Amino acid sequence: MEMLTIKRVPTVLSNYQEDAAEPRGCGRNCLGKCCLPVSKLPLYVFKSAAELPDSPSGATEKPLADFFLNSLLLGQWEDRMSKGLFRYDVTTCETKVIPGEQGFIAQLNEGRHLKKRPTEFRIDRVLQPFDPAKFNFTKVGQEEVLFRFEAGGGNKAHFFESAPVDGATSPTVVAINVSPIEYGHVLLIPRLLDCLPQRIDAESFLLAFHMAAEAGNPYFRLGYNSLGAFATINHLHFQAYYLSLPFPVEKAPTEKIPMAKGLANSGLKVSLLMNYPVRGLVYEGGNTLKDLADVVANSCICLQENNIPFNVLISDSGRRIFLFPQCYAEKQALGEVSQEILDTQVNPAVWEISGHIVLKRKKDYEEASEDYAWSLLAEVSLSEERFQEVKAYIFEAIGLVEAEVEDADVNENKRTSHQSTPVDTTHFPEGCLVQQ
Ligand SMILES: [Zn+2]
Question: What stretches pass through the bilayer (predicted)?
Answer without folding.
Answer: none
